[in-house]
Amino acid sequence: MQAEARALITGLDLASQLGIPLSCMELDAQVLLHFIHTGSSPWNLVYLTRSCKSLLSPSCNLSRILREGNKVADSLASFAHAHRDSMVFYSEDKFPTC
């Protein structure tokens, strides 16, 4: 759960730094989504969930997507796990193939 929260924070922070307005975000971590929406989470996730909530624009819709429908994110996560280097992709043509 901490990894998903940290990934969300990193993505929200990067979007903010690049000036990209977000109207929606999809997560496959239903429990994290619940913690962010309710503001209630275990003590070890309180800071992370509050950070997520503070980085989200009030107009940004946070919703759940099934892991099976999130193949691009799953492929990027597998790629990142295999390579262990910090990378930022600024255009789709630089993405690894799914």
From TrEMBL:
Single annotated GO MF: nucleic acid binding
> Transmembrane residues, as ranges?
none
Stretches assigned to the RNase H type-1 domain: 2-80
Pfam families in the cross-refs:
RVT_3 (PF13456)
Output the CDD domains linked to this UniProt entry. RNase_H_like
Q: What is the protein name stated in its UniProt record?
A: RNase H type-1 domain-containing protein
